[in-house]
């Protein structure tokens, strides 16, 4: 069942640059939708029985909702920053809860074991202390002061460095990562994960990047990010339970899971339950 809170959120449903007049037929939270261009070249989304749905175009993606969003798509200020390179990575279908996909993106401890010799390596497995908070004014989950040694932090990195991260959850099925920018110390590379919930245990994941990197070929940037996420997909599709448990007693957290704990608490606060498991089974 779709909860009212998540019904009124924005979700990515396609890439604007790849849309043509024939459109794209897809699914949003169990219901069929069609994403297309109107006679003026503007994006339009229709649901069941031809119902016209809300539309917004941000970060190269088309966003829509089954309900009535109370605010615009969340801001990413770096998307308006001159000199950045914006990369639409495409879409990856994952057989997992859309909330699980976001939670996995927030997980630091798995780097050495899942992304070996890229985002992490043994014996550099320790997660240092970091700060997690729910920022009341923005109503977002933030993790800051996150540091981790990485053999190749980005496609532009020439060797291993200690990378600093900030994680931000501005919407239930979206997360934004800020990380050390190897070519430009003092700036942040931005990698976002926009998740389209197809069903409670199935989602399309749309990664997007805003980088300071004028040298790496676009194909290499896309391939690097897809490699990372495809490594995650095998983990996500084998997690049990498939839905994200919101009862704190159902999974035992560690220090490395502070962001996940805050994310689940934030979901419960807002009654974001689509894709969640509320009680032990």
Automatic annotation (TrEMBL):
One Pfam short name: VanA_C
Domain of life: Bacteria
Record keywords, A-Z: Dioxygenase, Oxidoreductase
The keyword Oxidoreductase is assigned to this record: yes
GO function term, MF aspect, one: dioxygenase activity
TM stretches of this protein: none
Ranges of residues in domain Vanillate O-demethylase oxygenase-like C-terminal catalytic: 94-269
PANTHER family, per database record: 3-KETOSTEROID-9-ALPHA-MONOOXYGENASE, OXYGENASE COMPONENT, IRON-SULFUR DOMAIN CONTAINING PROTEIN
Protein name in the entry: Aromatic ring-hydroxylating dioxygenase subunit alpha
Organism expressing this protein natively: Mesorhizobium caraganae
């Amino acid at each position: 069942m779709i909860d009212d809170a998540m019904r009124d959120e924005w979700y990515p449903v396609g890439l604007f640059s790849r849309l043509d007049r024939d459109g794209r037929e897809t699914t949003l939270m169990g219901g069929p939708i069609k994403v297309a261009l109107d006679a003026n070249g503007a994006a339009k989304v229709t649901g069941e029985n031809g119902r016209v749905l809300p539309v917004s175009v941000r970060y190269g993606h088309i966003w829509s909702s089954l309900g009535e969003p109370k605010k615009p798509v969340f801001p990413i200020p770096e998307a308006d920053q001159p000199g950045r390179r914006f990369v639409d990575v495409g879409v990856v279908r994952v057989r997992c809860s859309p909330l699980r996909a976001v939670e996995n993106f927030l997980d630091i401890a798995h780097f050495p074991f899942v992304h070996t010799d890229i985002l992490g390596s043994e014996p550099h497995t320790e997660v240092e202390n970091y700060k997690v908070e729910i920022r009341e004014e923005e109503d977002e989950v933030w993790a800051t002061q996150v540091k981790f040694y990485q053999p190749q932090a980005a496609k532009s990195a020439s060797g291993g460095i200690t990378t600093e991260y900030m994680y931000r959850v501005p919407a239930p099925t979206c997360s934004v990562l800020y990380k050390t920018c190897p070519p430009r110390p003092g700036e942040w590379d931005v990698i976002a994960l926009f998740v389209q919930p197809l069903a409670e245990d199935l989602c399309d994941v749309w990664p997007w990047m805003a980088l300071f990197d004028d040298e790496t070929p676009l194909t290499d940037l896309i391939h690097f990010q897809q490699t990372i996420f495809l490594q995650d997909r095998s983990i996500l599709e084998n997690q049990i339970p498939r839905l994200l448990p919101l009862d704190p007693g159902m999974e035992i957290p560690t220090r490395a899971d502070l962001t996940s704990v805050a994310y689940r608490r934030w979901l419960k606060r807002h009654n974001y339950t689509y894709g969640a498991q509320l009680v032990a089974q």
